[in-house]
Amino acid sequence: MTCLRGFAKSFTCLFAARMGIGEASLSPAAYSMLSDQYSPGKLRWATSVFAHGHHFG
Fold it and tell me: Which of 4, 39, 42, 50 could cross-link with 17 by S-S, CB 3.0 to 4.6 Å?
C-alpha cells in the first residue's frame, strides 16, 4: 500500500491507498491473536519474534 500511495494521481486514489490493508491494521490483530495463542509465560517470546520479524525478513 505504501508503494501505491507513491503512484497516486489524485486525492481519491491517495485516500483509497491510505485506507487499504497495511501495517496499521495488521499489528493490533496480530498481537491479539498472539495473546490468544500463547500462555502469559511464552507471550513475551512470541511478541518479540513477531516484532523483530521484519528485521530478519
Answer: 4
Cell numbers 523483530 correspond to 52
What range does the domain containing 48 cover? 23-57
Residue whose cell numbers read 487499504:
20
* pTM attached to this predicted model: 0.55
**Using one digit for the tens of pLDDT, what is the confidence trace for 1-17?**
677 778 888 888 888 77
In this structure, is residue 39 part of a structural domain?
yes
Q: Residue 55 domain-assigned?
A: yes
Grid coordinates representing 54 are 521484519
